[in-house]
């Protein structure tokens, strides 16, 4: 059965917050901060919790940038892992990135340089969508 999760494309001065995963299934890969939604927890609250746990960052969340299915299969094609990740976009409000739970590093990264990193599948496209959705009222903070 699919599990619900959240992640956030959080922008600060034209850079996006990335984390390097310290656990499977994405061990060593760079991705957006986020994780599972606990029973009874609102998606936005889950993302705020995950941001704090993984990076020490607080953010003002905007809307949903995308929904991504993460599906792993065994050699016979049977699903072994299925997570539906709701990706929000947002703006940094406080804190400096420090690696916390489930991550080995947390950094601000120029979106143009993400292709140089080993990333989770589709990361560049999700960040592009989030970047475009920051909106004109947030243009200075997202795109400056």
Structure description:
The chain has 144 residues and is α+β, with helices and mostly antiparallel strands. The chain has a single domain, classed as Nucleoside Triphosphate Pyrophosphohydrolase (Alpha-Beta Complex), CATH 3.90.79. The protein is built from 3 helices and 7 strands. Strands 1, 2, 3, 4, 5, 6 and 7 form a 7-stranded mixed sheet that branches. A hairpin with an 8-residue loop joins strand 2 and strand 3. The longest helix is centred in the middle third of the chain and has 13 residues. The protein is globular. The mean pLDDT is 91.
Give the SSE layout.
Elements: E1 3-12, E2 15-21, E3 30-31, E4 34-36, H1 43-55, E5 58-73, E6 79-94, E7 103-109, H2 123-133, H3 139-143
Parallel strand pairs: 1-6
Antiparallel strand pairs: 1-2, 1-4, 2-3, 2-7, 5-6
Based on secondary structure, the structural category is: alpha+beta
Percent range of helical residues: 10-25%
CATH level 1 class label: Alpha Beta
Cα-atom radius of gyration? 15 Å
- The CATH architecture can be named as Alpha-Beta Complex
Tell me the span between the first and last alpha carbons.
41 Å
User: Can you tell me the residue ranges where pLDDT is under 50 for at least 5 consecutive residues?
Assistant: none
Question: Strand tally, please?
Answer: 7
């Amino acid at each position: 059965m699919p599990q619900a999760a959240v992640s956030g494309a959080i922008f600060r001065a034209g850079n996006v917050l990335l984390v390097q995963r310290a656990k499977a299934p994405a061990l060593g890969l760079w991705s957006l901060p986020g994780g599972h939604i606990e029973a009874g927890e609102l998606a936005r609250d889950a993302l705020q919790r995950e941001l704090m746990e993984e990076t020490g960052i607080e953010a003002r969340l905007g809307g949903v940038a995308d929904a991504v299915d993460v599906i792993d299969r065994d050699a016979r094609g049977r699903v072994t892992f299925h997570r539906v990740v709701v990706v929000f976009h947002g703006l940094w409000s406080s804190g400096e990135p420090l690696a916390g739970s489930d991550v080995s590093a947390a950094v601000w990264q120029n979106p143009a340089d993400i292709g140089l990193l080993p990333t989770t599948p589709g990361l560049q496209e999700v960040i592009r969508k989030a970047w475009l959705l920051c909106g004109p009222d947030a243009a200075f903070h997202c795109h400056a």
